[in-house]
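Dear U.,

For the methods section draft, I wanted the exact inputs and outputs in one place so we can describe them consistently. I've listed the two proteins in the order they'll appear in the manuscript figures. Please don't edit the token lines directly; just add comments below if something needs changing.

First protein:
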Amino acid sequence: GYPLVRRVNCESGDPAADDQAADVQANVNPGGRLQLVWRTKANWADSCRSLVLRFGFTGWTGADANFTVRFA
């Protein structure tokens, strides 16, 4: 299932480990805006991760959105 967390190489963006389930909380506000809270881990310091979301909207079936974050 989605969303997923993918550890990636900070330079190339290539996957560096198997995907894992992401610890997220998602809400849609009355105005229709999606708010996603991604709970990260302290031991991710000095690494890069991608949060992988899959959208199931009409015309978006099977489309992934990747957001890569560098943790300092």
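Second protein (the one for the lower panel):
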Amino acid sequence: MKRKSPTARWQLIGLLVILAVVIAGCANVRQGVAWPDLELVTINDNERVLVTFNDRIVAIDPYQGGQTVVARDADGELIRSANGDVQDWAVELREGNNQTFYVAPFRDDSNFVFPTYNSKFVEVDAQTGQLQDELGIPLTDGVIADVIVTDELIYVPYRSGDVVALNAETYDEVWRFETEEGVWASPLLADGILYFGSIDHFLYALDAQTGDVIWDNPVDLEGAIASSPLLADGFLYVGSYSHKLYKISLAGEIVAEYEGSNWVWATPVIADGTLYYTDLNGYVYALNPDNLTEVWSQRPANRGIRPAPIVTDEFVIVAARNGIVYWLDRETGQTVQEVEVERTPELLSDILYLPADEEVGRPALILVASTENRSLVTAINLETFSQQWVYQQ
């Protein structure tokens, strides 16, 4: 199914506006076209964090000062280079290959599979970090949002347009659904239905097995959609560049909406009966999810907040483009604490929360990634509000 195209003039204007914002977000310290992705994975039976950024992937140990993980073979022996140096668990594509990574991998047997901006899947041995085939598995477009994987199918959102379902074993295309513009956020798979938004302003619902439409008409959210929908208590919650947050029934009807001050570029969070979300004007909002009425709204940052918030028992934690992480009181939204990351780089990546482990005396941490190589990943202790370590690349 393909909806009727808007006039070429307004389509071009919309794309230029979106491109201008992306360029603005990439200004000053951005190294290339991506911002880092952080993913907690298991490597050799240990929890590690994969840092995916531009043309490099590295595994770090978040519990040992963010040290780079060394590579080991199937027998647990250190992997060494030809001159005898111990190798890190790291993937760096050959110079001039022009591959770039935006998103986390998925697991396929013994490999991590990384979607790339350059229209490929790249396979990496999960144990050793060795690149399996630099040529990769060809795709028909680039990927800038997480794919969804089941035993049978892999759902891939394409940056220029369309969502495809690939056979999980052969990677052959099973079905394709056409959109007018790109899909910049991961789809949501729930009860056999695939929900996703597009830069073309529409929210879609498809039969995940066949790709057939569930809703006769997609839902128009009045602006580009760059975040995944949240499913809670039988309703979908999603924001758009219309400055609005919407509550949508599973029948595809808008039942409530709330207008904030700027574009929404993150999935909302619901905790203990309150919905929290952020926008690109530096605001954080707390809403009643039943009718989207405002509980409070605060503007802790003087620049935009792209990532989704982390909600703890006491705080709503957000990371802003001004390089500062803020702790807001959950009841009032007032700023309680703030931590400025070294060199105050842009913080655009989603925050990774690592819970405390009292048995080993390990505090709760949040990991924030930046676009500055000298402070690529920063771990902040949630108990002391202090930087625990910084990973540099």
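Candidate sentences for the figure legend, describing the second protein: DSSP finds one helix and 33 strands in the chain. The first helix runs from residue 8 to 25.

Thanks,
Y.
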